[in-house]
């Protein structure tokens, strides 16, 4: 269950990171409220997950899911660059996440 909570926390991290783009510097109320809610949910889920998971592993995986998800969403929906070097770096992050999960 802790791993599932951690995965959800990472997804909400993607949500707030992408949400920042739509807040327009926190001047748009609805995107701002949704972004702040995503931030809170993400941290609460992370807090629940680390009750049983090692903090270093959980934090690294949480940020990794957020990083990979945000980059991919940026490429798919916001027109961010998807060149070979960026994709290789994403694969390295995914490999690190998998390694941490396997050794936890």
TrEMBL record:
It is found in: Cell membrane. It is a multi-pass membrane protein. Belongs to the drug/metabolite transporter (DMT) superfamily. Small multidrug resistance (SMR) (TC 2.A.7.1) family. Gdx/SugE subfamily. The chain crosses the membrane at residues 33-50, 57-78, 84-103. InterPro entries: EmrE-like (IPR037185), Small_drug/metabolite_transptr (IPR000390), Small_multidrug_res (IPR045324). Keywords: Cell membrane, Membrane, Transmembrane, Transmembrane helix, Transport. This is Guanidinium exporter. Its main location: membrane. It holds the Pfam family Multi_Drug_Res.
């Amino acid at each position: 269950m802790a791993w599932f909570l951690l995965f959800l926390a990472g997804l909400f991290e993607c949500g707030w990171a992408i949400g920042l783009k739509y807040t327009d510097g926190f001047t748009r109320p609805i995107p701002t409220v949704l972004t702040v809610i995503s931030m809170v949910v993400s941290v609460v889920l992370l807090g629940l997950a680390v009750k049983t998971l090692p903090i270093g592993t959980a934090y690294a995986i949480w940020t990794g899911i957020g990083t990979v998800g945000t980059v991919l969403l940026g490429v798919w929906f916001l027109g961010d660059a998807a060149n070979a070097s960026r994709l290789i770096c994403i694969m390295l992050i995914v490999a690190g996440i998998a390694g941490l999960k396997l050794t936890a």
